[in-house]
Specification:
With 366 residues, this protein is mostly beta strands. The protein has two domains: 149 residues, Sandwich (Immunoglobulin-like), CATH 2.60.40; 147 residues, Immunoglobulin-like, CATH 2.60.40. It has seven helices and 23 strands. The strands form six sheets. The chain has a six-stranded mixed β-sheet with strand order 14-11-16-21-18-19. It starts with 7 loop residues before the first helix and ends with a strand. The N terminus is likely disordered.
């Protein structure tokens, strides 16, 4: 939590500014939906499924390693109020039937979280993925980094209470999406992604590249955007709304509204930051950080080509991912008095108004 960090006190002040209690925020964007939230305040419910953006394993899995991913169905809360356009912070909270993946590397948060665990490999290494299903439905894993066998889902499908395993070699480097396809029907694919079963797998290039140079000693963050279609009666997936309107009820960063406001990424001046950003929503995300220029962007998950340089906004298509590097030399520490508050959002106006909004904070040298 931001409250436990060295800049926690400052974080607690920042959000009141961001939410419009000072002119600086109004000058950036006039309307913010997260009224009543406070940076660093603990999530008010017993169970929070939002993944901490700093939950990134530091080293790749060893050759021959086994990684366990668990499937869960858990009710928690996605938003303070429905509909998103009328948020008023009045305590009318929205329960949601999440589908979530747990497990992952040793040292990660092994409980179910949204997005699922960040998986880190090195090109050429062979690993075994074991799926354990603790839910009441059939769940599966489709890795976009896997060649053949429907991305592994042809093998990695587990009945309720069951398990499955699959061994593959990471042949092509990149930053890839993985997700559940349920039983493989179009409805199940959409339902399970809508409810939270997605994540990223990083396959690092075997040789030294510009990506690995920037990544070396960088502070790393994991952010995933998704569109959520919500049926108030079932507290689950609204397929009719998706097919008839294509207008999501919520657009989330890391599983729920406000997850990257009450627990924002915290970069450090002088140290590069690397953001691994994925999207499974039905629209192209326009990822932007107010007050930052993105120094390196490995577009479409391509980690072997030269990166784009000095990018203001990154388009990220559905079922795609990017790696974004920010130079520690040019970061400006978060400074309330000086107005240096970095707001992270999908810059498409309907989408940040529906929840795709967070903070990117920078602490000074320690």
């Amino acid at each position: 939590m931001c409250a436990n960090r060295s800049k926690g006190t400052l974080c607690g002040i920042i959000l009141s500014v961001v939410l419009g209690n000072a002119a600086i925020a109004a000058d950036l964007h006039p309307v913010y939906p997260l009224v009543g939230a406070t940076v660093g305040t603990p999530y008010p419910y017993e169970l929070d499924l939002a993944r901490d953006p700093s939950d990134v394993p530091g080293v790749p899995l060893a050759d021959g390693a086994t990684v366990v991913i668990t499937a869960h169905e858990v009710e928690s809360y996605i938003s303070p109020k429905l509909p998103a356009a009328n948020w008023a912070g009045d305590g009318t909270d929205v329960a949601f039937q999440f589908f979530a993946f747990g497990g992952g590397h040793e040292g990660q948060e092994l409980e179910p979280r949204v997005p699922g665990p960040f998986i880190r490999l090195r090109q050429g290494r062979t690993v075994t993925v074991k799926l354990e299903n603790y839910g009441k439905r059939q769940h599966s894993l489709d890795f976009h980094a896997v060649l053949g066998k429907t991305g592994g889902a042809g093998v990695l499908t587990a009945a309720p209470g069951g398990e499955a395993s699959f061994t593959f070699t990471a042949k092509k480097p990149g930053i890839y999406v993985y997700h559940c396809v349920g039983n493989g029907t179009p409805h199940e694919v959409a339902h399970h992604i809508n409810n939270g079963m997605y994540g990223l797998i990083l396959v690092e290039p075997a040789r030294r590249t510009a990506f690995r140079h920037v990544q070396h000693h960088a502070r790393e963050f994991y952010i995933f955007q998704n569109d959520v279609y919500y049926d108030a009666e079932t507290r689950s997936f609204d397929e009719h709304g998706m097919l008839s309107t294509m207008v999501p009820d919520y657009v989330t960063f890391n599983g729920r509204i406000g997850s990257l406001v009450d627990r924002p990424p915290m970069a450090t001046k002088g140290q590069n930051a690397m953001i691994y950003f994925g999207n499974t929503g039905g629209h192209i995300s326009s990822f932007h950080i107010v007050g930052e220029i993105l120094d390196w962007v490995w577009n479409l998950g391509d980690l072997t080509s030269k990166p784009l340089r000095n990018v203001q906004t990154v388009p990220v298509a559905s079922a795609s991912a990017v790696a974004i590097g920010i130079s520690g030399k040019t970061m400006v520490p978060t400074d309330l008095a000086g107005g240096d508050i970095n707001i992270m959002l999908d810059h498409g106006s309907p989408y940040f108004r529906k929840g795709a909004l967070g903070l990117f904070l920078v602490e000074d040298h320690k």
